[in-house]
């Protein structure tokens, strides 16, 4: 369970999966995987499709998109010569977007030492999530990440590409943490991850060493460090709006002063105990000031507001009746059940206040021009991989973002953060991770769920194949 979560929410069940259909779909999924092991991605032409320009929030006139060797080889209007050996897909009345990117996931279980969360891969892909940022990788696990990336590109694995993987620099001293940063750089980790328990002095040493080896630092803002300080010191991202709640409180200085000088775990415990007072002292003017500082410093906020979403109509005691519950691996079901059944639960008043303040912070930071990006913390309990990113984007819109800005938070904005110019847009030369939709997401962000097909590393997965990925294991 992610340390930064301040509660988990339940989902309403709709229906249980039909077992007969699930068995047939599972067999189909096996056939699908075998068919993908054919070497180079086949030539693909998506004809007469409307392309969504996510960067500018607009659509194009119908185009034909030609995909070769896992890349977009051409985009053209009008009649286009299509090679005879190409697979042709009719894109009329369809909308083409870049694959979605979840910027905060956990594919490894380092605390419990359970197997990696490969069970989540088909859930991501079936929901149009073709890229993820892995948030807590050990040095040894970087080899597994490289294997996954290569297997996806070769068509041997149906999974999102791990676009970035971060390593937490462990060590009992500042010198040991610095050495761990250097070792992570030598192993080609993509970024350094920090947690709330990191003491301010250790955090500064990590930032300093990371600058030396030219690695970004992402993650939690330590419990005794202000959001403004983290942004101005060069931490690239802040996750879960940590310390944003304090920054938007009239009592920020008082709360942080009480944490300073405490041990790391004690500071985190006090932070959690202060939550009600922090939320109750929300100050719009303080929030506007904090938003300006964050925007000026260029720090990105990876929001994960799906963790804070509160819906009073959702009961807490029927989570196993959710039709997606069987999609979890057995050990993951056990973990969710253990956490949910033993959690005291949030008081309704506190949960409502938390959600209200969360939305206010999102609106204020958006108005200031801060970079807001989408992540989920999957697989936190009730945060279903893939599905949760749609929840995240829909709640961003509910909090005041436009459909276009929410979409950018999980496409071009995410790619820009990770410095991946060939990802996050539908353009010539880009990686062919794409989602074909039945309706325009710029009109309604919920249309992102209306997935007609997914192109994964240049390979076409149509609706029946995506349904097969969601078969009960």
Termini, distance in Å?
A: 23 Å
Return residue spans where pLDDT drops below 50 for at least 5 consecutive residues. 1-31, 34-38
The average pLDDT score comes to: 91
Look up the CATH topology of the domain at 100-424: TIM Barrel
What can you see in these coordinates?
There is one protein chain. By secondary structure, this protein is an alpha/beta fold. The chain has a domain at 100-424: TIM Barrel (Alpha-Beta Barrel). Helices cover 37% and strands 17% of the residues. It is built from 17 helices and 17 strands. The strands form 3 sheets. Strands 1, 2, 3, 4, 5, 6, 15, 16 and 17 form a 9-stranded mixed beta sheet that branches. Helix 3 links the parallel strand 8 (129-134) and strand 9 (161-167). Helix 4 packs parallel to helix 5, helix 8 (252-259) packs antiparallel against helix 9 and helix 14 crosses helix 15. The longest helix is centred in the C-terminal third of the chain and has 20 residues, at 348-367. The chain is globular.
Fill in the keyword field for this structure.
473 residues; alpha/beta; disordered N terminus; 17 strands; TIM Barrel; five-stranded parallel sheet; nine-stranded mixed sheet
Briefly say what this structure is.
With 473 residues, the protein is of the alpha/beta class. The protein has helices at 19-35, 121-126, 142-154, 174-186, 200-212, 227-233, 244-247, 252-259, 264-273, 275-280, 284-297, 330-342, 348-367, 387-398, 403-409, 412-417, 463-469, and strands spanning 44-53, 58-59, 63-68, 71-76, 87-90, 95-98, 100-105, 129-134, 161-167, 191-194, 217-219, 237-239, 300-302, 371-373, 434-437, 451-456, 459-462.
